[in-house]
Amino acid sequence: MAVRGNGCLSVDAQIKAQQLLETFVILNEQALNSGFTIKDIRESYVKCENRRLSTEKNGKSWHSSGVPLCVLATALFTILIVVLLPHTLTTQRCLLQNNFFVMEATRPLTDCDKVCKGVNSVLILDNTTKEEFSKLAYSSRPILVRGGANHWSARRIFSFDFFRRLYEGVGNNDSARARRESYYQSVEEECQFFPFRTDFVSLREVFAMPEERANFSVGQKPWYIGWSNCHPEVASILRQHYERPHFLPESSEVSAIDWVFMGGYGVGASIHLDYVSRPSWQAQISGSKTWKLIPPPECEDVCTAFSVTVNAGDIVLIDTNQWYHDTYINPGPLSITIGSEYG
Ligand SMILES: O=C(O)CCC(=O)C(=O)O
Ligand SMILES: [Fe+2]
Fold first, then answer.
1. pTM for this one?
2. Domain span at residue 38?
3. Ligand 1: does its nearest atom lie under 6 Å from the Cβ of 31?
4. Which atom of ligand 1 is nearest to the CA of 269?
5. Rounded Cα distance, 293 and 318, in Å
6. What one-character DSSP code corresponds to residue 272?
């Protein structure tokens, strides 16, 4: 069987990790409320580490040097590094998704000169070739390839109903039920569901919503969700209608996991950074979405934030590991995107 799963924690472990995270976040918030900035917390940890290394080198005990902030900073980082990170670093867009404080405190610093200095807009390419793109593919420069997905049949075929039929199937005999169960279970247990702007807690609930809500009829609560697919059967059905963007380098890895984001007008994903090791492409199948890209705080003196609107048929390429990002769905047709990692 093809590789399925992205290393997310079990539900139990997620609950425990979440409790620890909450403690960590409260401590951080208290520190921030009393006048510390995230930069201070990070710097105090780095300073403490340096001090510990130098006192230990000199044969002294660091703990007896009695620096309370150092003890706190180290305790917070120990919780993160020993308890959480061995799991979360492999969880991709999992647990730490919206945890700004934790992300900020633990991520490697960005090389501003390389990643964002002098970049104040997305690079727009009207069409591109493998050759042209190969020079840019790993540059961390956000790129928009206009019309890059226009020829995909997904542009005609993908809709809320298409996905509902795919997951719900037809009929209610044993085999239809088993297939439905395995598709949903795969999202719940091996992949991920993102309740960005919604009260739905699972993809099952999304596809069980009444027609009026699915159509965003007046008076209905709006929704915006995402999920990743790691079920090979679902992937093979989806992939009949799109391909890996034709301009990606031949040598770049093909991810077994695809991401779908779907929903209507309004706020999309709130600001976050992803823990993914590779840059991502995302094709706008229908509707239109505006991304705001924000450089990490250590680069704010030399880099600027900017936005990019992605219209149906366009493909956007972003190193979501380096650029903080949020999204906003523009008025108009349902926004459906499909994406994956490459690199
Ligand atoms: O498409 C969106 O609304 C959010 C996508 C995102 O955060 C990502 O692909 O990393
Ligand atoms: Fe993201």
1. 0.76
2. 11-106
3. no
4. 3
5. 9
6. B
Asked if residue 140 and residue 236 are part of one domain, the reply reads yes
Q: Is the CB of 97 under 6 A from ligand 1?
A: no
Residue with tokens 């000169």: 113
| Residue nearest ligand 1's atom 4 by CA | 269
Cα angle 242-246-252, degrees, rounded to a multiple of 5: 105
159 in the same domain as 88: no
Q: Is any atom of ligand 1 closer than 6 Å to the C-beta of 263?
A: no
Is the CB of residue 339 below 6 angstroms from any atom belonging to ligand 1? yes
User: Terminal CA-to-CA distance of the chain, rounded, Å?
Assistant: 23
Q: What is the per-residue pLDDT across 190-234, written as a single tens digit (0 to 9) for each? A: 999 999 999 999 999 999 999 999 999 999 999 999 999 999 999
Q: How far is the centre of ligand 2, averaged over its atoms, from the C-alpha of 319 (Å)?
A: 9
Looking at ligand 1, which residue's alpha carbon is closest to its atom 5?
Answer: 269
Q: Report if residue 284 sits inside a domain.
A: yes
3-state secondary structure of 70: helix
Please report how many Cα atoms fall inside a 13 Å half-sphere around the Cα of residue 311, on the Cβ side.
5
| Cα 339 from Cα 320, distance rounded (Å) | 12
Query: In the chain, what are the helix, strand and coil shares in percent, each to the nearest 5?
Result: 40, 20, 45
Q: What's the structural domain count of the chain?
A: 2
**pLDDT computed for residue 15 by the predictor:** 54
Whether residue 155 is found in the same domain as residue 197: yes
Of the ligands numbered here, which is closest to the C-alpha atom of 341?
A: 1
